[in-house]
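Objective 1b: paired records.
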Amino acid sequence: MKQNRWTVLFAGMLLMMSLGTIYSWSLYTQPLICSFGWSTSTTTCAFSLAIFFLGLGALAGGRLQDRIGPRRVALAGAVLWGAGNALAGLGTPHLGAGCLYLTYGVMGGFGVGMGYVTSVAVVTKWFPRQRGLGSGIVVTGFGFGAVVYNLVVKSLPSFRSAAAAAAQHAKALHVGGQMHAVMNVLTLSGVAFLVLGVLGACLLHNPTPAAHGAEEASAAGQGHSYTPRQMLATSQFYFLWSMLFLNVTAATRCPSFRSSPALRLPLSPRPTEGSRCSMRSAAFFGELSPTGSGARTRSRSFSWCRRWFFS
C-alpha cells in the first residue's frame, strides 16, 4: 500500500512539474516582442488567457474526475498543455497572435487547470490522514517545474542568443533564425511537456475502498463532512477563496515584473524611495508566489477544502 501511495505521489509531482512551467512565460515575453514587433500587452495577453482558462479547467476537471476517474482527466490535461505549446510554436509565425492565444492561452491553460486539480485531488485521497503533507508535496512540483524549466531553457545556446538580441532591443526577425529559434524551443517544450505529463497521468488512480477503507473511516471520524451548499454558507470558504485569489494574483504578476524593462532599476549605493518600493513589492509578491510561502498557504487551503468534503 505504501509503495502504491508514494508511486501516485511521484506521478502527481511529475505531472505538476510539467504543468508548472506555465509560470515560465516571462522567458518568451521579450523575445516575442522583438521578433514580431508586438506590444507588451499583446504578448502578456497569452499568459493572462492561460491563467483565466486554468481556472475554468480546474472547475471542469474537478467535476469530471469524480465522474470518469482521475486518469482520463489528467491525460486530457497533459495532452492539452503539451499540444498547446507545440501548436503555438508551429503556428504563431504563420498565423500571428491569434494562434498563440488559442493554443497556448485557451487550450494550454485549460489543460493545466484540469491536470492541477486532478493531481491534488488524487494525492489527498491516498493520504486521508496526512492531506496537508500529500497536497504540500505534490504542489511543490508545480513551482519546482518552473525553476527547472527556466534553467534548462536558459542553457540552450540558440535561445540564449535570441534572448540576448531581445535584451539589446534588436529586431530578431532580421537576425538570422532568431525567431525560429524561439519558436522551436516552444515547440520542443510542448513535446517534452506532453511526454512528461502523460507519463505522470498514466500512473494516477484513486485508492480502492478495500485497501483504504479503514484509514478513510478513521480520518472521517475526525471531522464533519460538508455538502457544496453547506460549504458556501460558511465564512471559512470565503476566507480561503480570498487567500487563493491573492496567491494566484501574486503568482501571475511575477512574469510581468521580470519582463518589464521599466522595472529593471539601476543599482545604487543609496536606495531611492522608488527602489525601496520595488524591493517591498518584490518581497511581498515573492512571499505569495508559487515558490514562496504562498505555496505552503495554498497547500494548506487545499487540505482544508478537501477535509470539508472527505473527512
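Objective 1b, second protein:
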Amino acid sequence: MTQLAADAPATNRLTFDALLTERGALRYTPAGIPAIECSLRHQSVQAEAGSERRVECELFAVAFGDVARELAARPVGSALRCEGFLARRYRTGITVALHITHLD
C-alpha cells in the first residue's frame, strides 16, 4: 500500500442525507465510550457530466460518544443529515464505513 506524503492533501469529510434503515443497540467500548452501528439509505438526483443522475445507495455507519447516544434515540425510518469521515469498516478490510461525527 502506498503511503501519503506528509504534505499531501488529507481532506476526508462527507455530508450525507439518508434514512436510518437499521440501528444496533447502544454499546460501550472497553474504554467506556458509547458506540452504535447503523445502516443508512440515500436517494437523490445529482448533476454529472451535464445531465442528471439518479443516485441510490446504502452505507454502513458508526458513531461514538454523544453522537452515538443521539443516534440511539432516533427511530428506524428517521431522516438524518450525517456529517463525518470515511474509514475502513474493518482494519484489514477494503469496505468503508461512515464515522458519524455530527447529526442534524
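Residues 18 and 92 are 27 Å apart (CA to CA). The two ends are 36 Å apart (CA to CA).
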